[in-house]
Amino acid sequence: MAVAADATAPVATTRKRVSRPMVVAAILLAWLVLFAVLRGRQTLTLAAADLTGLHRRLNDLNDSIGANRNSNPLFLYFFNEIRLAIDNLVTFVQSLISQPTGSRPVPQIGWLGVVGLTGYVSWAVGNWRVALLAVAGFTFFGLQGLWQESMDTLALTLSAVLVALLIGIPLGVWAGLSDRFNRIMTPFLDFMQTMPTFVYLAPLTLIFLIGGASAVITTVIYAAPPAIRITAHAIRSVPETTVEAADSLGTTRSQQLLKVLLPMSKRTVVMGVNQTIMAALAMVTIAALIDAPGLGKTVVQALQSLDVGTAFNAGLAIVVMAIVLDRVTTAAAGRADAARRGAGRLATWRRPLLAAGGIGAAVLVYLSHTYVWAAEFPGSGSTGSHIASAADTTTTWLQDHLSGLTNGVRDVITNGLLNPFQTLLTDSPWWLVGVTLVALGAVLGGRGAAVTAAVCVGLLVGTGLWSDSMTTLASTAVATVLVMLFGAVFGVWMGRSTLVDRVVRPTLDAAQVMPPFVYLVPFLALFGATRFTAIVAAVVYAAPVAIKIIADGVRNVSESTVEAATSAGCNTWQIITKVQLPMARSALTLATNQGLIYVLSMVVVGGLVGAGALGYDVVAGFSQGQLYGKGLAAGLAIVLLGVMFDRITQAAARRTRA
Questions:
Q1: If we measure between CA atoms, which residue out of 477, 489, 478 comes closest to residue 440?
Q2: What is the 3-state secondary structure (H, E, C) of 348-396?
Q3: pLDDT: is 126 or 347 the higher one?
Q4: pLDDT tens-place string over residues 380-396
Q5: In angstroms, rounded to a whole number, what is the distance separating the alpha carbons of residues 433 and 83?
Q6: How far does CA 278 lie from the centroid of its chain?
Q7: Buried (b) or exposed (e) across 407-430, using 16+ Cβ within 10 A?
Q8: SS3 assignment, position 295
Q9: In angstroms, rounded to a whole number, what is the distance separating the alpha carbons of residues 577 and 565?
């Protein structure tokens, strides 16, 4: 019996040696061999102006909805009423701060009142430093000559945030109190946060038309998930002992919520408000593609005409607004925490000072409502003209003096990495790519990921945009590889050095605040309108989140393990490659997941600057009525790519942790 057992031992050992990377390599090798034999066959290419039966049916659906919008009961009594309510809210907020109303040639509250209110609210919810920042930032909008555009963006953002919080916080509280409801909501929230921002636009314009109301509704759908998730997390984070103590005192469910759970989770809920505001601002700028007013519209028009100076000036205003809103809400979270602890040396004087500040703000509002000089921002916005001129001059200088370097980098990555991989994807038979994706899903993520990949591949074929989807997939994959390279280098550096982490992390946090549109502008100046511009912008947009995740993963590796490796004679390179990175595999997989989602979102936005493929299809669908159905199908294809990437990488992360 012992001999028989020993005889079977080598077989078991041999089976264990077939590692997952070896299987992945075998799948890729088989793909390359079959590609060489079958290249150019069954590629499902479709010309830019051609439509499939699905696209025509979607066009017909759009025409039918337009013709019956005011007679169909579902639209007449439901969708149109929602649109009317949101439109009234947007119009009201715009009439307050950005647009003339009735016989008034100016808004109800002019620039001086808006600046005064902004400073006062920032001080009341935060501190005097963020109040000064807010006043300076809002004054800067006027100096740029972009006061009305900035206020339109702010009006849409505030409207969307108000609705998102009215929906998100109650749902978040419910999810925090009910495990069953939380399980129901989680898949929907995962799906909503996986979808790139572009994708929300097309189907909602089908229902709500284009304009400010549709922009706000789109933004609410995109911005509500962070509020729901973070509120639920805040409620669930309250210590059980505190809840039990409240129970022992005979409190009711509502008393527990209002007197215990919400007060103790106030700081986290305020951070959820911060994330909702940032998501709303990002979406409002992109919603310019569906005729939403504001800074985003200025950026889109400038990008489409390759006017770098104007785009830079408007993009700078978006960045300033994002920084102001982020700092104010972050300070509000700190104020909530300090108030809960009863901290602050000036707490005794705070209420009288706030009362005096409120009177001052009210006076400024009255002046801006009554006098034209306090309502219309003085000057011609010459600062903005100087900024745009400087950006154009810089662009010209860069193109004249650095074109050799920038073109060289662009050509190396495009010709050495992007073009070969794109050729492999677009010139392979569609079924071969599909089988490869399903096989990779099975190896990396298991049966569930393979089924998801198979369904997504089938639906991608059904959209009629297989070739464009593969082109987008190529750009996404190349950008993700670059993101992970940067993420590994800087993440390991930050994870191994506390000083580097303290220096670099604030920059990464600031980079994540900026809406994706803003990243296109400087790289448009450097590289022109090409696919590479979108890829570089995607790398810069996605790298911060990947770097932070990898840094945290490396830092969480046990110090005793690192010390043991050091005592065994390992050098720094060996410790990183043999100890820290292997033990941080789950963080690397999660970083890949998040990097993919961020990259896909940005590569699609790059359709505005020559990225082509699905991004171009979506943009063309908004601007050319006969291509609307194709644009809608392109949005679906983007969703399918995002879902497939997300499910495979999430399943791989779970298997790595296991």
A1: 477
A2: HHHHHHHHHHHHHHHHHHHHHHHCHHHHCCCCCCHHHHHHHHHHHHHHH
A3: 126
A4: 788 999 999 998 898 88
A5: 42
A6: 9
A7: beebeebbeebbeebbebbbbbbb
A8: helix
A9: 12
- Each as own residue / partner, the long-range contacts of residues 577-582 (CB below 8 Å, 24 or more positions apart, any chain) are 580/492, 580/495, 580/496, 580/554, 581/488, 581/492, 581/554
DSSP-derived letter for residue 178 is: -
CA Rg value for the chain: 27
Angstrom distances, CA of residue 521 to CA of 83, 148, 201, 515, 528 = 33, 22, 22, 12, 10
- The residues, ordered by sequence, that sit 6+ positions from 633 with a Cβ below 8 Å of its Cβ are 52, 54, 55, 58, 463, 464, 465, 617
pLDDT digits over 507-525, tens only? 887 777 777 777 788 888 7
DSSP 626: G
What is the distance between the alpha carbons of residues 233 and 225, in angstroms, rounded to a whole number? Answer: 12
- Mutual orientation of helices 212-236 and 80-97 as an angle, nearest 10°? 90
Residue-wise pLDDT for 62-118, tens only, equals: 888 888 888 888 888 888 899 899 999 999 999 999 988 877 888 999 999 999 999
How high is the mean pLDDT of the chain?
85
pTM above 0.70, yes or no: yes
Q: How far apart are CA 348 and CA 197, in angstroms?
A: 46
Cβ 606 vs Cβ 537: under 8 Å: yes
Question: Alpha-carbon distance 646 to 590, whole Å?
Answer: 10
DSSP string across 119-172: HHHHHHHS-HHHHHHHHHHHHHHHHTT-HHHHHHHHHHHHHHHHHHHHHHHHHH
- For tokens 């028009």, name the residue: 301
| φ, ψ of residue 174 in degrees (nearest 5) | -60, -45
Per-residue pLDDT reduced to its tens digit, 3-54: 444 444 444 444 445 678 889 899 999 999 999 999 999 999 988 788 999 9
